[in-house]
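seq:
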Amino acid sequence: MIGMDFLSFLVLLVISVVVSFILHYVLKFYVVPGLASFFGKVIIGWLGAWLGGPVFGYWFFEVGQVYVIPAILGSLALLVIAVDLVNTVKGGGARPPAM
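struct:
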Protein backbone atom coordinates (compact mmCIF):
# COMPACT_ATOMS: atom_id res chain seq x y z
CA MET A 1 0.00 0.00 0.00
CA ILE A 2 3.04 2.30 0.17
CA GLY A 3 3.13 2.87 -3.60
CA MET A 4 -0.62 3.15 -4.14
CA ASP A 5 -2.30 4.17 -7.34
CA PHE A 6 -4.65 7.13 -7.68
CA LEU A 7 -7.82 4.99 -7.43
CA SER A 8 -6.71 3.64 -4.04
CA PHE A 9 -6.00 7.18 -2.85
CA LEU A 10 -9.48 8.30 -3.94
CA VAL A 11 -11.21 5.34 -2.28
CA LEU A 12 -9.42 6.10 1.00
CA LEU A 13 -10.28 9.79 0.62
CA VAL A 14 -13.99 9.07 0.04
CA ILE A 15 -14.09 6.75 3.06
CA SER A 16 -12.37 9.39 5.19
CA VAL A 17 -14.71 12.19 4.05
CA VAL A 18 -17.83 10.10 4.74
CA VAL A 19 -16.69 8.92 8.18
CA SER A 20 -15.49 12.43 9.10
CA PHE A 21 -18.77 13.98 7.93
CA ILE A 22 -20.84 11.56 10.00
CA LEU A 23 -18.73 12.12 13.12
CA HIS A 24 -18.44 15.88 12.75
CA TYR A 25 -21.79 17.06 11.43
CA VAL A 26 -24.22 14.24 12.24
CA LEU A 27 -22.97 13.05 15.64
CA LYS A 28 -21.34 16.39 16.62
CA PHE A 29 -18.23 14.50 17.80
CA TYR A 30 -15.48 17.13 17.61
CA VAL A 31 -13.08 19.22 19.65
CA VAL A 32 -14.10 22.52 18.07
CA PRO A 33 -16.81 23.15 15.48
CA GLY A 34 -15.96 24.46 12.06
CA LEU A 35 -14.63 23.62 8.66
CA ALA A 36 -10.96 23.55 9.70
CA SER A 37 -11.73 20.90 12.28
CA PHE A 38 -13.58 18.87 9.64
CA PHE A 39 -10.61 19.02 7.24
CA GLY A 40 -8.30 17.96 10.04
CA LYS A 41 -10.56 14.97 10.60
CA VAL A 42 -10.39 14.12 6.90
CA ILE A 43 -6.59 13.96 7.03
CA ILE A 44 -6.52 11.88 10.21
CA GLY A 45 -9.32 9.68 8.88
CA TRP A 46 -7.38 9.06 5.66
CA LEU A 47 -4.39 7.86 7.68
CA GLY A 48 -6.68 5.60 9.72
CA ALA A 49 -8.26 4.19 6.57
CA TRP A 50 -4.80 3.57 5.11
CA LEU A 51 -3.80 1.67 8.27
CA GLY A 52 -7.12 -0.19 8.44
CA GLY A 53 -6.03 -3.10 6.27
CA PRO A 54 -2.77 -3.90 8.08
CA VAL A 55 -4.42 -3.54 11.49
CA PHE A 56 -7.83 -5.16 10.96
CA GLY A 57 -6.90 -7.56 8.15
CA TYR A 58 -7.81 -7.92 4.51
CA TRP A 59 -11.36 -9.22 4.20
CA PHE A 60 -14.79 -8.74 2.67
CA PHE A 61 -14.59 -6.82 -0.61
CA GLU A 62 -11.96 -4.78 -2.34
CA VAL A 63 -12.21 -1.58 -4.40
CA GLY A 64 -9.03 -0.27 -6.00
CA GLN A 65 -6.80 -2.46 -3.82
CA VAL A 66 -8.52 -1.13 -0.68
CA TYR A 67 -10.57 -3.44 1.50
CA VAL A 68 -13.51 -1.23 2.40
CA ILE A 69 -14.69 -2.52 5.79
CA PRO A 70 -11.21 -2.55 7.43
CA ALA A 71 -10.59 0.93 5.98
CA ILE A 72 -13.84 2.23 7.49
CA LEU A 73 -12.99 0.67 10.86
CA GLY A 74 -9.46 2.10 10.76
CA SER A 75 -10.70 5.58 9.88
CA LEU A 76 -13.33 5.50 12.60
CA ALA A 77 -10.92 4.14 15.21
CA LEU A 78 -8.20 6.71 14.58
CA LEU A 79 -10.68 9.60 14.52
CA VAL A 80 -12.26 8.56 17.83
CA ILE A 81 -8.83 8.13 19.42
CA ALA A 82 -7.66 11.53 18.14
CA VAL A 83 -10.74 13.44 19.31
CA ASP A 84 -10.78 11.72 22.70
CA LEU A 85 -7.05 12.32 23.17
CA VAL A 86 -7.33 16.03 22.39
CA ASN A 87 -10.40 16.39 24.62
CA THR A 88 -8.55 14.68 27.45
CA VAL A 89 -5.47 16.87 27.06
CA LYS A 90 -7.64 20.02 26.83
CA GLY A 91 -9.44 19.02 29.99
CA GLY A 92 -12.80 18.46 28.32
CA GLY A 93 -12.74 14.69 28.81
CA ALA A 94 -14.69 12.72 31.36
CA ARG A 95 -13.65 13.38 34.92
CA PRO A 96 -14.25 11.24 37.98
CA PRO A 97 -16.78 12.63 40.45
CA ALA A 98 -15.36 14.83 43.22
CA MET A 99 -15.29 13.37 46.68
